[in-house]
Amino acid sequence: xxxxxxxxxxxxxxxxxxxxxxxxxxxxxxxxxxxxxxxxxxxxxxxxxxxxxxxxxxxxxxxxxxxxxxxxxxxxxxxxxxxxxxxxxxxxxxxxxxxxxxxxxxxxxxxxxxxxxxxxxxxxxxxxxxxxxxxxxxxxxxxxxxxxxxxxxxxxxxxxxxxxxxxxxxxxxxxxxxxxxxxxxxxxxxxxxxxxxxxxxxxxxxxxxxxxxxxxxxxxxxxxxxxxxxxxxxxxxxxxxxxxxxxxxxxxxxxxxxxxxxxxxxxxxxxxxxxxxxxxxxxxxxxxxxxxxxxxxxxxxxxxxxxxxxxxxxxxxxxxxxxxxxxxxxxxxxxxxxxxxxxxxxxxxxxxxxxxxxxxxxxxxxxxxxxxxxxxxxxxxxxxxxxxxxxxxxxxxxxxxxxxxxxxxxxxxxxxxxxxx
Length: 421
Ligand SMILES: *Cc1c(COP(=O)(O)O)cnc(C)c1O
Description:
Blueprint: H1 6-11, E1 31-35, E2 38-41, E3 46-49, H2 52-55, H3 64-76, H4 88-100, E4 105-111, H5 114-131, E5 139-143, H6 152-155, E6 176-178, H7 184-197, E7 201-206, E8 210-211, E9 217-218, H8 221-233, E10 237-241, E11 265-268, E12 280-285, H9 286-290, H10 311-324, H11 328-344, E13 353-359, E14 362-367, H12 373-382, E15 385-386, E16 393-396, H13 404-418
Parallel strand pairs: 3-15, 5-6, 5-7, 7-10, 10-11
Antiparallel strand pairs: 1-2, 2-3, 4-12, 8-9, 11-12, 13-14, 14-16
The protein binds pyridoxal-5'-phosphate.
Residues 113-115, 118, 147-149, 207, 212-213, 241, 243-244, 269-270 line the site of pyridoxal-5'-phosphate (PLP).
C-alpha cells in the first residue's frame, strides 16, 4: 500500500461519511481522477466502476461532449437564481424532458437532489387536493421494498422495516404501506384497502419496474397498469419515482414506457446529468398543473430551492440527452443484459444465494442475509473493480457505455469475489 495522501489523513477526522458506522468502517479509497468507466486511485491503480457512482454515470466519466457543454456554460454563467430570471439551459431542458416523457407530463419543476424532487412531488400531490377543496387527503400509499430518499418526508414512504429508516418510526406521520399488487388477488386486496381509505390518501407512489435501493427487486409491467387502474378508479394521484430507473437503465428510456402507463407526477435525477452535476426534477401532468393555475396567489406552489435549475447542471443534462439521441444505448443495454445474465448465473449455485436476476443494465445476486459490504468492497477492489454491495444484494449497474471486455472483468470479479469456482 502506498502512503495515504495528506488530504485524506487530515480530512478523515472531519468528514462524516454516508451510511456508515464511522467507528468500525474501513477507510475509503482515495480517487484522484475518472475517465470512461474507470476510477483512478491515488496510488495510481484504476478500478472498473460497476456501480456508475450510484447509477448516475450513464455515459461514463468525463465524456467529452458533456465536459465541453459544462465548460462553455461555466465561462458564460455558472449560476443565477431561478426566481424571476430565466436561462436557456433550463428552458431547453424542460421542453426536451416534456417531449421525451410519455403523455402530458409537461410541467417541469427543477431541484438539486432526488430526495428533494420526491418531497416536491409529495407537496404537489397534497396541494392538488387542497387547491381542489378536498380536505383530509394527507397520506401516501407506498410499498414494501420501496426507497424514495433520506430526507424526513421521504423516509416515511420507504420500506418501514427493511429500509434504513426504521429507527425513526413514530417520529414522522405514518403512511399507508402495502405490498405491490404482484397478482390479481393482491390487486383485489389493494382495491379493498383503497375503497376504505381513499378519503385520506393523496397519492400512490412507487418506483416503476425496479425497487432500487430497497434491494433491486423487480416487478412486471402489469403491476404498474394495476396501479394506474386503481388510482383512476379511486381518484387518487399516481407518482412514479424514476430517479433510479430513468434514462435507459431498465432497457427503455423510462421504466414506465414498458408498461405503457403514465403517472400524474414523475421524479427524475441520478442519470439526468450523466453523473456530472446534481440535478433533479418533479414533472407534473397537465391535470396536476391545472389545479395550481388560478387567479388566487394562495393556490401557487410555494417552493424554490436556492440552486434549482443550476445552469451548469442543466447544460450537463442537455448534453447527456444529446448522447441518448442516436438511440445506440438501446443495443448497448441489450448487450449488457445478455452479458450480465451469462456472467452472474454461476453465482446461483453458491450457498446462501437466493436469486440471480437481471433487467436491462442491472444485474443482481441476492443473498439470504445482509452481506459484509466493507469486506466485499475491499475484495472486489483487489480484483480491479469498484463494486459496492447493499444490504442483501451484490449488484452491477455499470455505465451504459461499458465494453464487453470491461464488463466481463466485472462479472468475473463478482464470481471470484463471492467464491464461485
Ligand atoms: C437515489 C434515489 C432517491 C434519492 O435521491 P438523492 O439524490 O440521493 O436524494 C430517491 N428515489 C430513488 C428511486 C432513488 O434511487
